[in-house]
Design brief:
It is built from five helices and five strands, in the order αβααββββαα. By secondary structure, the chain is of the alpha+beta class.
């Protein structure tokens, strides 16, 4: 019986891992790779060789490329499921019309905390009494009326 308990304990201990589980998303080592880029010298083809395709491109300016790196680790063995962000880097590259890199900004965890976000909220100007809303309400009432009439007839 002792051997069975020891065998079960051995299996449980061997399956437990005390190493941090690291999950990465995006381009790995973005800060080191961004040091290879030279302003006013590196072209878009060289950027693609060094960093690969961008994570996203700006909707407003297609010549603004954005690269993302995010590493998450488990905070400790005892806190199951709790994760800690170990690195969160964002690289914004701006390329001119000739394909040359002219501006580069790397945001890390500290710089991202310094970004000021506006607290202003936009007001909803939607009013429920417009023409289309009135039509849809009347159609819904006409669809529901036969049901009401059947209920009244049953009573």
């Amino acid at each position: 019986m002792k051997n069975i308990y020891l065998l079960i304990l051995l299996i449980i201990i061997s399956n437990c891992s005390f190493k941090d589980v690291k999950k990465s998303h995006g381009i790995t080592n973005l800060d080191k790779k961004s040091n290879k880029l030279v302003l006013n010298s590196t072209n878009s083809n060289q950027i693609l060789e060094i960093l690969g395709p961008p994570s996203t491109k700006s909707e407003l300016d297609p010549n603004t490329w954005i690269y993302i790196e995010r590493k998450v680790t488990n905070s400790s063995v005892f806190s199951i499921g709790a994760e800690k962000v170990s690195s969160n880097n964002l690289l914004v590259l701006k390329i001119n019309g000739r394909g040359i890199l002219y501006e580069m900004e790397l945001y890390d965890l500290e710089k991202m905390n310094d970004i000021k976000i506006s607290k202003l909220e936009t007001q909803n100007t939607f009013k429920g009494s417009d023409f289309l809303t009135n039509i849809l309400i009347s159609v819904r009432q006409k669809i529901n009326d036969p049901i009401r009439n059947r209920i009244k007839k049953r009573k």
